[in-house]
Amino acid sequence: MLVISSTVYNEIPSEPTIVVVPVFGHDPDSGFGVPLGDDAWAAPGLVTSLRKSVLVDLSQRVDVQTLTDVNNMLFKILATPDR
Question: What confidence tens digit (pLDDT) does each residue in 54-83 have?
Fold first, then answer.
């Protein structure tokens, strides 16, 4: 999972969830994959929430450009009209 909610939001003690995007070992079938490097792909089309209590370890950080790429894909998804 790639955490996409802001640090400020994540640090609110009374808020039990964070906002995440699933990460796969291949380009997701959704067509909206964002490469993260090292054979990892974020799937912004599958954005969801996750309870903070289930998080146990930080395995890797991504750079600002990667988060920008994921956010840009989210905007593209939101701007795409349903047909």
Answer: 887 767 788 899 889 999 998 888 887 765
pLDDT digit string, tens, across residues 7-65: 898 889 899 999 999 999 888 877 788 988 878 999 988 889 999 888 877 677 888 99
Backbone angles phi, psi at 76, to 5 degrees: -60, -40
List the domains of the chain with CATH numbers: 2-79 (2.30.30.110)
Give pTM, 2 decimals.
Answer: 0.75
Helices and strands in the chain, H and E counts: 2, 6
> Do the Cβ atoms of 5 and 47 come closer than 8 Å?
no
Name 20's bridge partners: 3, 48
